[in-house]
Amino acid sequence: QVRLVESGGGLVQAGGSLRLSCAASVSIFALNNMGWYRQAPGKQRELVASLTAGGITTSTDSVKGRFTISRDNAKNTVYPQMNSLKPEDTAVYYCNGQDILRDYWGQGTQVTVSS
Which pairs with CB-CB distance under 8 Å and at least 24 residues apart come from 103-110? Predict the structure, then answer.
């Protein structure tokens, strides 16, 4: 069973930065893909950014130029660095990992951006 443990959420003012982290209980190379999703109240969960085992990154248009995703292989941890945060970035952020069998999810961490 793969476990994903998130940390780093909180309250920040618009224009500020936060770095989240997601630690996997297995080698991140055992997962084809790791990424972050978010869900705002009344909205569907959406992909924010992802990183394949081969190092290819993907991000949604609304965060391009502001968010980056990186990993520490030794710590089996993925980090989204979120800069120039906007109130519309307010959501619960979920870490996601995928292997050939299924998706795995973290418990979620709240990010609130005040205007």
Answer: 104/2, 104/3, 104/4, 104/31, 105/4, 106/4, 106/5, 106/6, 106/22, 107/5, 107/6, 108/6, 109/6, 109/7, 109/8, 109/9, 109/20, 110/9, 110/10
Residue ranges of E strands in 40-99: 46-52, 57-59, 67-72, 77-82, 91-98
pLDDT for residue 115: 94
**DSSP class of 45:** -
Instruction: Dump pLDDT digits (tens) for 57-75.
Output: 899 999 999 999 999 989 9
